[in-house]
């Protein structure tokens, strides 16, 4: 165990030392073609907000790290600035993951808004122009994660995020969520009556993203569009054939747009309807296999039923820290990956620790025999 720790620590040091990244290059510059294609022989490694277990979430550093660590897809949340610029940020408020509290010039900009039925107070992203957002710096969300990169990286735009994926030396997919569309459409207006969904799809088209799941073009520029709002996914389906994933919240949640409950949207009748528009679902892992007092319970039939409807299942969120790993996995994320991949049979995993999932998959189902290396 000590030897293993030493090896892991040395590896960690090596990665940290090699982390000085060049600044962003325009897509297509500096890599040979054709690129190494997207792997499709094992469940997708979905880098949740980039490698945010190591770097502040949704920053260029977090995304570049996750690509280096073997991500099949880099995942993000798209919100909008006051002046309609699409940016990568998870929360509608800036309080938790940026240094806004240190910006005295914005001290008077706190507001309280209704967000999906909750009265939330904070500094809302929709009250800041892109020029203002550029002055902020990201910080780590969780106190138990590495804080050394706080204040170092800016918020990035949807365009910059796409460019990071396109700039990779192999085919790396994007997995953008159209985030809180009801709230965004209420607070941000675009010219010519365009709504959030239109501007979102326009951006994807601008960079050449198109094609259905596993189509020739899709494999070159893979993309899943995800949302918790089914009406946004249905609307987007009329604009692009890119594959879509319907996200499903916790069991007490309801959809922000159609106000449907968890039970309704996970019924066979609903799967029959939504499968005309989406290729899969993205449920929280605890709704697929419930936990009580951190002990795993019997799995629900959600994966089996989704598969019976030819829907993929991409559960969230896999995190290495003990707070998120049920006792049955003995604090070991690899045992958790084994359970979800080999017993539950899921098709993709959203993880904060892309490197760990990649290592597990290379050990247990290597893409090429004897290849234990990160790409
Ligand atoms: C929302 O919360 C704020 C701050 O606590 C409060 O001032 C405001 O009255 C609340 N609004 C509603 C509609 O409850």
UniProtKB/TrEMBL annotation:
Q: Where is the signal peptide?
A: 1-20
Enzyme category, top tier: hydrolase
**Catalytic reactions on record:** a sn-glycero-3-phosphodiester + H2O = an alcohol + sn-glycerol 3-phosphate + H(+)
Q: Which domain of life is it from?
A: Eukaryota
Start and end of every GP-PDE domain? 43-361
Q: Which GO terms describe its molecular function?
A: glycerophosphodiester phosphodiesterase activity
What cellular component terms from Gene Ontology apply here? vacuole
| Biological process according to GO | glycerol metabolic process; lipid metabolic process
State if Hydrolase is listed as a keyword.
yes
**CDD domains listed in its UniProt record:** GDPD_ScGlpQ1_like
What InterPro entries does this protein's entry cite? GP_PDE_dom, PLC-like_Pdiesterase_TIM-brl
For whether the record's keyword set contains Signal, the answer is: yes
Q: What is this protein called?
A: glycerophosphodiester phosphodiesterase
